[in-house]
Amino acid sequence: MVTIARQIVTLSKPRIVVLLVFTGVCGAYAVAGGAVSAAALIAVIVAGSLSAAGANAINQGLDADIDAIMTRTRQRPVPAQQLRPSLAVATGVAFVIAAVALMGALTNAIAALLMLAAAAVYVFVYTILLKRRSWNNIVIGGAAGAFPPLIGATAVTGSIDAMGLYMFAFVFFWTPPHFWTLSILLRDDYAAASVPMLAAVTSQRETAMQIALYVVLLLVMAWLPVVSGFGGVGFGVVATLMSIEWLRRSKPLFGETTRKQTLSAYKFSLLYLAIVFLVLAVEPALPWA
């Protein structure tokens, strides 16, 4: 029983779940001005964790064949034949259903439907439709990871508003440069598994160019809340500085780069999202906001 529980935890990709839930919580606080009800907070954390874990489990059940080829993933429970693909999918479906029900019970129907949509995009759009067919897989399918802050905001407000949509868009455009940096490290794995991640189907320089263009877009987007009147200058300044640093760390990717340099850019992209969303969450509660 303990072994099965451990395998299910591994299926959930807990490190990814933590970041997704964090952006969801930040989304809730960003629209609430620092005052989030206990019910909404519990829903965002618990239901958000269950939904993300469920989608990840379904993904691994469906992708067992290519996961078995890739060095990074072949020790996961399904390709390592510790769990059957059907059990992984069934577990994931149960988690998503429980998450949607909990979100609906504790907050509102719109937030619950958004949570269902996030899981559906990850499973049907990314995993089934695009991952094996197009280098745009992470551009379009990556939208699944952009839902948590929108869900968090909607759990508080009961409606889809401008701030929630902005946070969705910010994560949507953060995802490709983040994942493409990882794809440079794993391009041989993706090529072996015939998964057309950008770095596996084009040159590293072209991949680096796409990464830089998206980071510049994020830098510009950092000032949209200020211009539109629903965000503070602090977020714009922090996000701009973080974007400049991300560009600096990505510069070596245009030439012969070491694994250490690529890994530095990849890890910074994770820190980037955490920091800018933390600022987005706390700024409305500051005295000068």
Task: Provide an overview of this structure.
The chain contains 15 helices and no strands. The protein has about 290 residues and is mainly alpha-helical. The protein has a single domain, classed as Farnesyl Diphosphate Synthase, CATH 1.10.600. Helix 3 runs antiparallel to helix 5, helix 3 runs antiparallel to helix 8 and helix 12 (about 205-220) runs antiparallel to helix 14 (about 235-250). The protein is about 75% helix and about 0% strand. The mean pLDDT is about 95. The chain has helices spanning about 1-10, 15-30, 40-60, 65, 85-105, 110-130, 135-140, 145-155, 160-185, 185-190, 200, 205-220, 225-230, 235-250, 260-280.
Features:
289 residues; mainly alpha
Strand content: under 5%
Shape: flat
Oligomer state equals single chain
| Residues in helices, as a percent range | over 70%
CATH topology: Farnesyl Diphosphate Synthase
Write down the domain tally.
1
CATH architectural category: Orthogonal Bundle
Radius of gyration: 19 Å
Q: Helix segment count? A: 15
* Main beta sheet: none
* Euclidean distance between termini CA atoms: 51 Å
Total number of strands:
0
Low-confidence stretches: none
